[in-house]
């Protein structure tokens, strides 16, 4: 029995150990570029849902919208916490690390074509327990991301409408809109929204970047008399926890990496995956550095978090209004890929996975509805942006985009340590071990930083109560 056959037979849809009905091609091996025979979705059938329909440009857009949107709004605060030089280096280094771990995702998919999402990774790395762990952890990660997106959307609506209604109502709007958009079945169709979202967010970022550059002073600064931006190449007044909070924020901002499994799994030609990855990471890193450096330089200590509130009330309203479609698309993708993993897990190996049956639609829509409902509860139970970003980045973000990916490479490549004595191989071993160790360090210290920050927010009265109607855009 081949490895592919064994993994398919041992990887059931609903937890039993029955053999799956996904046919194995002649020779027992899958070519992941063969769109007619897929180790996850089976043989392509006329009239069924064609999940393998995304080109490399569409994949790039989906990857961009998986990463860029929420994180970019917090980049200037990273430089504020650490200083211009350390902050820029943190962004660049995390960008390079996540580019490598994103590359590992493509390699792992090629080596294990039966993997669609992180639950499959968990099964290969840790057997049944690993599968069940990631079956819970990965959707919850995406649900947390959607929850933070709901907070950002409520901030945007409050800013644009001058707090026209209770904040909870705006989160309900975010939830309903996300359900409608995330119910689109394939990522290739979601990529159409991705174009709109990408243009939306980039336009908003451009507006705020230009505005802070041409204005005399940011809106939060004293409007008359002398004022000090208090910018520094290195922030010597910063604390260790503040620095680790900044690292966690950047990790969060790049933490869409595990969703790349969904992307490569729905590409027509997965061999083009690396092209999409490199374009995505280059654009994201350049954008993060630009918005971080420019806004920090011109605003200094008078930053707003998220950054769209840094240039005054009018610009704030314009920027948030333009950014709203992009925020909706981001939470749509987070919800879609999280729900899709559960959907594939439940229906894998059955005709309902790709056929337009009642079971197919009931499971799909029910899964999406469940994800947005939990996201809504989280968004209102933890109604603050910056601390939520840090907590997500420190825990689930680091686990998914650093620890798991380093472990994946070591799982596939460490067995050849006795035969491969090359310097290149040894460097890669050290690199991936270092990524795993650094990931655990960030989890511990970043979580510590986030918990302290949350405690301080409550103790100082910045947070009133869960499910609060209060305007959350005043400091943004």
Task: Walk me through what this model shows.
The protein has one domain (53-222, 233-459): Amino acid/polyamine transporter I, CATH 1.20.1740.10. With 476 residues, it is mainly alpha-helical. Helices cover 66% and strands 1% of the residues. It has helices at 3-10, 56-67, 75-82, 84-111, 118-161, 167-182, 187-214, 240-253, 260-265, 273-299, 313-347, 358-381, 385-413, 423-459; strands at residues 37-38, 42-43. The termini are far apart. Strands 1-2 form a two-stranded antiparallel sheet. The chain has 14 helices and two strands, in the order H-E-E-H-H-H-H-H-H-H-H-H-H-H-H-H. It is found in: Membrane.
Set down the secondary structure blueprint.
Layout: H1 3-10, E1 37-38, E2 42-43, H2 56-67, H3 75-82, H4 84-111, H5 118-161, H6 167-182, H7 187-214, H8 240-253, H9 260-265, H10 273-299, H11 313-347, H12 358-381, H13 385-413, H14 423-459
Antiparallel strand pairs: 1-2
Helix pairs in contact: 2-7, 2-10, 2-11, 3-4, 3-8, 3-10, 4-8, 4-10, 4-13, 5-6, 5-11, 5-12, 5-13, 6-11, 6-12, 7-10, 7-11, 8-13, 8-14, 11-12, 13-14
**In the CATH classification, which architecture applies?**
Up-down Bundle
User: What separation lies between the terminal Cα atoms?
Assistant: 59 Å
Under CATH, the topology is which? Amino acid/polyamine transporter I
Number of helices: 14
Beta content: under 5%
Describe the main β-sheet briefly: 2 strands, antiparallel
How many structural domains in the coordinates? 1
Q: So what's the overall shape?
A: globular
**Order of H and E elements:** HEEHHHHHHHHHHHHH
Q: Please write the CATH class name.
A: Mainly Alpha
Secondary-structure-derived class = mainly alpha
Transmembrane segments: 54-75, 87-108, 133-156, 162-181, 193-214, 240-264, 276-298, 318-337, 358-379, 391-411, 423-448
Pfam families: Aa_trans
Keywords: Membrane, Transmembrane, Transmembrane helix
Subcellular location: Membrane
